[in-house]
Amino acid sequence: MKQLLVITHAPTPATVALRDAVLAGASDPEFFAGEVDVHAVAALEATDPQLYLDADGYLFGTPVNFGYISGALKHSFDSTYDDLLEEVARRPFSYWVHGRSDTTGARRALDAITTGLDLRLVAEPYERLGELSDVDLAEAREFGATVAANLIA
Dihedrals φ, ψ of 135, to 5°? Predict the structure, then answer.
């Protein structure tokens, strides 16, 4: 069974809704029962490199704070980055970001971090601004399923 590690910081109703939709898609038993184990961890608790090393792929989620990723997600990367270099190369990943007006800085940061780790992007990052609609959440669910499907493809 493949393990998908989902690391998120979800301090707002919108980020909680996105996280839950992504998790629902990634762990849909109709498609992934017995094939993908989804392990969700709050970003502030994801400071042990072994969490990353035990996973086959990754999904990151963050609100955009002051044009950057959340401090919680940055802390996870700060705590594990050096230990992961060359150890997680080419593992599949993607990420979602939610902001009020602009996510450019957060996307740039996540792209730089994941490029440094040599992770392999398997789904276009999911980006949303402002209030979320039912369509947004359905798309987030599909996004989670797409990332999980890439673990078993």
Answer: -65, -45
The residue ranges of every structural domain in the chain are: 2-152
Q: Tell which CATH architecture fits domain 2-152.
A: 3-Layer(aba) Sandwich (3.40)
DSSP, collapsed to helix, strand or coil, labels residue 25 as helix
Element (H, E) at 98: strand 92-99
Confidence of residue 35 (pLDDT cuts 50, 70, 90): very high
- Please give the single-letter amino acid code of residue 103: T
Can you tell me the distance from the alpha carbon of 56 to that of 51, in angstroms, rounded to the nearest whole number? 10
Residues 6+ away with beta carbon under 8 Å from 52: 5, 46, 58, 80, 84, 87, 88
CB-based contact 139:110 (threshold 8 Å): no
pTM of the model: 0.96
Q: Is 67 left (phi over 0), alpha (psi -120 to 50) or beta?
A: left
At residue 136, the 3 state secondary structure works out as: helix
